[in-house]
Amino acid sequence: MEINTGTNDLLASLDENVLTLTMNRPDARNAMSGSMTAALAEQLAKAELDPAVKCIVLTGAGKGFCAGGDVKGMAARGDGTVGDNTIDGAIHRQRINQRATSGKLFKMPKPTVASLPGAAAGAGLALALACDLRIMANTAVLTTAFARVGFSGDNGGTYFLTQLVGSAKARELYYLSDRVSAEEALRLGLTNWICAPEELAPKTREIAQRLAKGPTVAFRYMKENLNRAMTGEVDDCLDLEATHHIHCGQTEDHREAAKAFVEKREPMFKGR
Questions:
Q1: pLDDT in tens, 127-146
Q2: Which domains does the chain have, with CATH numbers?
Q3: Nearest 5 degrees, angle CA 195-CA 196-CA 198?
Q4: What is the sign, positive or negative, of the torsion defined by CA atoms of 189, 195, 198, 201?
Q5: pLDDT, tens digit (0-9, with 9 covering 90-100), for 52-103
Q6: Whole-model pTM?
Q7: What is the distance between the alpha carbons of residues 268 and 134, in angstroms, rounded to a whole number?
Q8: 258 within 8 A of 252, measured Cβ to Cβ
């Protein structure tokens, strides 16, 4: 089912409980426009509350994932304030946009998957790293890119990259802006799978459908546990796990899974 996002810069479709959001500016390597960012924020906010959406896939049209900010547009304006009249206004809007996009992908109580047919750079890389899982075509590359255009970085990239590869490697990748191949990304833990370009769509569909058919209540709490574990104190994590574990034990999904285990069959989860 196609969904009207209000702009051609972002396409959306819902199929078998998987919401696919496609950044759609292929001629600009899917660089983020204002309308794309606004539509992405709106679709993610709706998806969080929609029981029909059980997994979100973020991808790019054509041969790229997302080139990040529209540097050509910035050059035409002569600055990076994205059209605001004041620095304070620009900062406030940037904060709101980041929390509604990369922040929402990270905190969304549902699994999120980035499917990369090609390059992810700058804010585009941050969006990919904000997702729970990543699948890359073996021809795709990653780069922070910010140093090359005189920016310090945005959309949570410094946080996500540091968590995934450690502080020293994250500093190297930010300072030098080197390109990371798919094979190196897999070695570093920046992606979960790599595959031939023609295999990307079916591989993405396979992973997304597995997640969409999974125990959604358990996934919600599992994701919160994992996110808290990134910065939490050990006793806080232990206490949170205990609360969520006992709660999941009361769900219909758990009872069905236990019965299926005894009957040696696959469980049929219902998300309750």
A1: 999 999 999 999 999 999 98
A2: 2-212 (3.90.226.10), 216-262 (1.10.12)
A3: 120
A4: negative
A5: 999 999 999 999 999 998 756 554 555 555 555 688 888 899 899 999 999 9
A6: 0.91
A7: 26
A8: no
